[in-house]
Amino acid sequence: MTHPFPDFTAPAGPARIGIGGPVGSGKTALIERLIPALTGRGISLAVITNDLVTDEDAERVRRSGLIDPARVRAVEAGACPHTVIREDPTLNLAAAEDLDAAFPGLDLILLESGGDNLASTFSLDLVDWWMFVIDVGQGDDIPRKRGPGIMQSDLLVINKLDLAPYVHVDAAAILREARAIRAARPVLGCCCRPYGRDGADGTDGIDAIVDLIDREVLFTRAARQDAG
Ligand SMILES: Nc1nc2c(ncn2[C@@H]2O[C@H](COP(=O)(O)OP(=O)(O)OP(=O)(O)O)[C@@H](O)[C@H]2O)c(=O)[nH]1
Ligand SMILES: [Mg+2]
């Protein structure tokens, strides 16, 4: 993300990355893949999930065995999932501050939004950088619909490329079209499940997402903090 103020200095504390996208596109599945990939690179991690009226996703991540369950917090978003990530992110900011206080040296918090439509975006008071996850099962015309999530996110992830042949979507074409629509902003294809399909069939895979996070968020933020 290019910050609008060149002399901006990143605040101390962990970086925060938002993960938004329509219901069922694979946001939690992506988190389950990112946790081992990021912690394997020595990054100290925590997770906040937003569900409408339950803590279902937080419980799933806690039970996954991938991360210390104490590092996972749930925010109940209520009826309107984008309100708590955009208009009034107080609950998510409080959860992030709690995690920062509980785990000194925390590098990064992943925040999953409640499943929404193509219109959700994150407040930059809440996150440093955010990605939007769609999947091929929603149709190959989704990038063309140009919702704010597709146009404004720092990274567009097109998930479930393994399903493309079954839903009659040309995976290469949807990636090409999304890249053309987003111009210079990155688009990466992946398969959060089944495991082992990363990088197969032209997908960019989880490692490409982690490389981008490393470069665009963690490295850039550390450089800003050093400069400050
Ligand atoms: N075939 C396939 N299935 C996937 C993939 N990623 C996720 N799924 C499945 O898609 C379904 C939804 O995944 P979730 O990770 O729960 O999606 P989500 O975006 O977190 O859903 P909400 O939080 O309810 O909005 C689950 O049944 C996953 O197993 C993928 O790459 N390929
Ligand atoms: Mg989820």
TrEMBL record:
* Amino-acid positions noted as binding GTP in the UniProt annotation, renumbered to this chain: 21-28
One biological process term from GO is:
urea catabolic process
Highest taxon above the source species: Bacteria
Give one GO molecular function term.
GTPase activity
Asked if the record carries the keyword Transmembrane helix, the reply is no
- Protein family membership: Belongs to the SIMIBI class G3E GTPase family. UreG subfamily.
Described by its record, this protein's role is as follows: Facilitates the functional incorporation of the urease nickel metallocenter. This process requires GTP hydrolysis, probably effectuated by UreG.
What name does UniProt use for this protein? Answer: Urease accessory protein UreG
What organism is this sequence from? Paenirhodobacter hankyongi
**Gene name linked to the record:** ureG
